[in-house]
Predict the 3D structure of the following.
Amino acid sequence: MRKNLLLAGLLTAFCFVAKAQVGINTSNPQGVFNIDGLKNNPATGVPTAVQAKDDLVMTSNGNLGLGVTAPGTTLDVNGAITNRETVLPVVGNAVNIPVNISQVQLTGAATATVAISAFAAPNPGQRLIVYNNTTGGFGAVLDGITIPNGKALEFVFSNSFWRSTDGGAAGAAPVNIYTANGTLAGNRTVTTAGNSLSFINGTNDVSIGTTGTQGIVSATGSSRGAFQANGGSAVLNIFVDNNGAAQVTTSGTSTSMNVNTISANPVNILTNNTNRVTVTGAGSVGVATTTPQRALHVNGALQVTNEINVGGNGTTAGSAGTSGQILTSGGAGAAPTWQTLNTISGTINGAYYVQGTTAASASAGQTIDVPGVTYTVTVPAGRTQTFLFTILGYALDISTGTTSQGVFTLLQNGTKISSAYVSKAGIFPNSGLSGGLVNMPVPVTFLKSVSLSSGTYTFKVQYVSWVGAATVNVVPSTFGGYNGDTEAMLTKMQVLVYNN
């Protein structure tokens, strides 16, 4: 019996060596060594993926497969790998990780940053996972790498140190921007592919997206949609209220708000999709016209409910004139001016009247001023005026039967500019002394016009006696039928002033 068993063992060993493959629970090994855990592999051919799920296979090139029959790497596992976790309490804000451990959880209370000491791995490439589950909120440091509190970090042993595999020298944990703030490490591009990115809070949202050829930023609110720009403490708001007006406002330290096209393009204001106001690139403003011909061009009716100022300059106000003045043109290139009606060319500037005051007598050959008949006038600067004089005068001797002759003269600043003859008949011709007309005064009326430039002028009337004595500004109280009129025979002068 013993001889038979020995012979059977020798035959079996010979078969294994001859075939160079060992199969356990399978007669169809897929490598030099194959264990079929569920004994479900086929007798011939290659097992399916489901059949291979329970297999352990070592191939002739030294690869080991778990759950696969054709491992592609030194260790090829089709399934989960579990690193058993070791819990290590922190003592005095320090902890030591013993050898032959691949995953640890740090527990206990920390009052400062936890210092981690760990073994030097026997071979580079060994991995270690550290989960910082301490209380107190402090990080834990391994070889200069910080594991944030509440985070796990994987390390690989390389070049004599444990190196973090998250790509950050400080071992910073990835940040979920939905639950925490983060820092953008560089420029990023989001391709929307026609979709939009929206931030929504109930019925309120801000969306960024594209549609067709448009790039759109939309801010929607149940009561207000707004965009806000802040420069330091200066604020620009663009908003629209539900059932309200759209507004652009500034606040804070903002000092002004400019609407600028940078180039020479115009700025237009439209209502009902129709251009109403245009500011050209040259600065001219057109109302109801896009081609203003002057600094302000109103193509339509203009209503002014307050003063109109003319003149002035870029920093000073013009004149609003005074009540009753009218606006007159200054010609091309000049501002109009407010003028009183009686200062306008072709109009009467004024009418003046003077008359004698007291009687004065002149003997033959004598010249006297007519008392009271003097007028002084000033022509405004930069203008000319025309003066029209009308003069009425009497010169007589009250003595019965005497005759007098002479002239009234008009003087301008002491120089005669006009004169007229005057006389008194002592006895009217052919009348006879008894019952006839005596002391018949013959008055004289004469006219004179003169145009003057700006300046001050004095005009007065004189009487020059030729024959006999005569009196001017006579009160004819001795005349028959005299009714007490003291002005009847006074010398009178009326002056009309016209603007040229």
Summary: Residues 349-478+485-499 form a domain with the Jelly Rolls fold (CATH 2.60.120.760). Residues 5-11, 13-18, 167-171 have pLDDT under 50 and may be disordered. The longest strand covers residues 367-379.
